[in-house]
Amino acid sequence: MTFKVVIFDLDLTLWNGRVMYNDTLQILKYMRKNNIPMYIASFHSAAPFVTHNLGIINYFNEIHYGQFSSKAHMISQILKYHPNVKKNEILFFDDDKFNIEDVRRKHGIRTIHVKNGIKWNDIPISSAQKYFNDFFSKVF
Questions:
Q1: Cβ-based neighbours of 43, under 8 Å, separated by 6 or more
Q2: Are strands 5-8 and 110-113 parallel, antiparallel or unpaired?
Q3: How many domains in the chain?
Q4: Based on the number of CB atoms within 10 Å of its own CB, is 71 exposed (0-12), middle (13-18) or buried (19 or more)?
Q5: I need a labelling partner for 132 at 20 to 30 A (CA). Which of 25, 31, 105, 117 fits?
Q6: CATH number (domain holding residue 135)
Q7: Which of these, 2, 58, 1, 47, lies nearest to 25 by C-alpha position?
Q8: Burial of 2 (0-12, 13-18, 19+ CB in 10 A)
Q9: What CA–CA distances, in Å, run from 134 to 82, 104, 115, 130, 138?
Q10: How far apart are CA 122 and CA 52, in angstroms?
């Protein structure tokens, strides 16, 4: 494992406005199983309501949201909880290229541009781990 904190955008990253993307729940379960703190940084004004309705609210340590804050500002608040974690051990996933570049430039953390929803291929873990997790998530 090469990361210790994960921050997700909500809209068009974990869900499409109606339902979660196919890999979302398994990815969240994987992170939880590996005791990785997870956060939401979203412009969606009802992010807590959405995560509650999707049944994923309990996966997140906190949900930072609102239209009057930048993603970089939301993430600066989250980073205060993890002062001893190296920047290259923090991942931020977002579908918006501007947010990805802004956060990378201001915080120097690892950013991943998500296209058409988060997928296992977006997660920087080994192929063997992906296969193992995918196999066991279907069997059990």
A1: 11, 65, 66, 67, 71
A2: unpaired
A3: 1
A4: buried
A5: 117
A6: 3.40.50.1000
A7: 58
A8: exposed
A9: 29, 30, 20, 6, 6
A10: 24
Provide the residue range defining the domain that includes 123: 5-139
The structure tokens 């923090």 sit at: 90
90-94 vs 110-113, strand pairing mode: parallel
Among candidate residues 85, 105, 104, the one with its CA nearest the CA of residue 94? 104
**Sign of torsion over alpha carbons 22, 121, 114, 1:** positive
Q: What is the pLDDT of residues 44-100, one digit of tens each?
A: 999 999 999 999 999 999 999 998 889 999 999 999 999 999 999 999 999 999 999
Show Cβ contacts of residue 112 under 8 Å, excluding neighbours closer than 6 positions: 91, 92, 93, 94, 100, 122, 124
